[in-house]
Amino acid sequence: MYIKTAGASLFLLVAPVIAEETAKAPQSAAVKATGNAPDTMGTLLSLGAGLLAVIAIIYGCAWIIRRMNGMTGMNNNAIKVVSVMAIGSRERIALIEVGGQQILLGITPSAIRTLQVFEEPVVDTSNANTGDFAKRLQSMIGKSWTAPNKE
């Protein structure tokens, strides 16, 4: 019983001190907030400028990489892969065109061998873009893209 009354009297002594401190805390926080408030517009401008700088760096690196690929001096039109056919799980044959001549190659994981050199072209590569996909795409471009009317 004595402990309960001692605890209650201790609470009554400490309660006014706690109430006073809690009353001062919001006022001091408000004073601190108005005195040292962060500049919201300045922060947003700083973040926006940083974001623009990162995006500019990304585009700049992409532009440099694209330019470096062109500096290799190699002509990518010199060799054309006309057709490739899988023979096994890791073996295939490829028909390539080099300097107007078509060459049939056997490709394995360990070697590439010439199977046949054709004097006359086996496959006409002048209209290589007229495959199934190209034909279908051209026929779809000519059609109307609107949905058919359901009546």
What brief labels describe this structure?
151 residues, alpha+beta, four-stranded antiparallel sheet
Describe it.
With 151 residues, this protein is an alpha+beta fold. The protein folds into 2 domains: 2-69; 79-125. It is built from 3 helices and 4 strands, in the order H-H-E-E-E-E-H. The chain has helices at 2-35, 40-70, 132-142, and strands at 79-86, 92-98, 101-107, 112-118. A 4-stranded antiparallel beta sheet has the order 1-2-3-4, with no helix packed on it.
Shape descriptor reads elongated
Helix segment tally: 3
How do the strands line up in the largest sheet?
Answer: 1-2-3-4
Strand content: 15-25%
Q: Tell me the domain tally.
A: 2
What is the C-alpha radius of gyration, as a whole number of Å?
39 Å
- Counted beta strands: 4
String of helices and strands:
HHEEEEH
Q: In angstroms, what separates the terminal alpha carbons? A: 91 Å
Structural class designation: alpha+beta
Short description:
The chain is of the alpha+beta class and 151 residues long.
Q: Any chance you could write out the topology, listing elements then pairs?
A:
Elements: H1 2-35, H2 40-70, E1 79-86, E2 92-98, E3 101-107, E4 112-118, H3 132-142
Antiparallel strand pairs: 1-2, 2-3, 3-4
